[in-house]
Description:
Layout: E1 2-8, E2 12-19, E3 33-38, H1 53-72, E4 77-82, H2 84-87, H3 92-103, E5 108-109, H4 112-127, E6 134-139, E7 144-149, E8 156-160, H5 164-171, H6 180-197, E9 208-212, H7 214-222, E10 237-239, H8 240-250, H9 255-258, H10 272-286, E11 290-294, H11 298-310, H12 317-324, H13 330-334, E12 335-337
Amino acid sequence: xxxxxxxxxxxxxxxxxxxxxxxxxxxxxxxxxxxxxxxxxxxxxxxxxxxxxxxxxxxxxxxxxxxxxxxxxxxxxxxxxxxxxxxxxxxxxxxxxxxxxxxxxxxxxxxxxxxxxxxxxxxxxxxxxxxxxxxxxxxxxxxxxxxxxxxxxxxxxxxxxxxxxxxxxxxxxxxxxxxxxxxxxxxxxxxxxxxxxxxxxxxxxxxxxxxxxxxxxxxxxxxxxxxxxxxxxxxxxxxxxxxxxxxxxxxxxxxxxxxxxxxxxxxxxxxxxxxxxxxxxxxxxxxxxxxxxxxxxxxxxxxxxxxxxxxxxxxxxxxxxxxxxxxxxxxxxxxxxx
Length: 338
């Protein structure tokens, strides 16, 4: 059986396809084919989180193209979902309706905690059992996810409305570059939010600290990591001390200058400063000097969970999933034939 994951995010629509007989090997690339179309819908989000008409058209067109690609690829089953940009926008029902009318599929939604758990599964699978106790950090466009544990399922997981895109709109919109006062306000906000949820005694140490997401990868490039084309298993880290210096530099640069920095893409340049501030304050709150970059994330976590279910007889899949995971309605809601 050929299965797919369709991820509708704030920057792009991503389709990943793999076979149910495939088994991931952390020493190699994930056994899947992928396709992407950039929508840059983050630039079409108003200060209240609403996606404008042009953004809606871009997303619906991209999802329709992805579904056509999935059909031509022979996908039997697809898991389609919207991330925080879609899930949390005030005009979500309009967005979902337009997508369903154009593409013929109703997007599901994962909660922030489910995203944290699935991304944790991907990072655990990529690092292997040698990682021991693991702390996962994931900065998205709309939310921040943190999870911790030593098995495939995290013992603690949380999701906070502190994504790089969201915080840029809420705190750094007074100029390009933003004012020093705006940057200080964002530091205080992130630090205050983290103090409420990060109590050192609740998060075991020692631990392997892992960072997933394009934001963290681009920050690692800024702080000296080699590009991914040199191999996904070359160790890459984002360094807290180096981040501090880069925050000062980024806060003085306009967006059109940031996009020429190492690893910073044009479509994320406007929010890389907010991402750097969140990453720095996260590492500071946990008392960590660095985090290792993991190239696998939410999409791989969804595929891994589905592949785990495929490994047992159909009648036992849900009981096996419950043994591996706390059951949630997302599979019934989003996993559907193409």
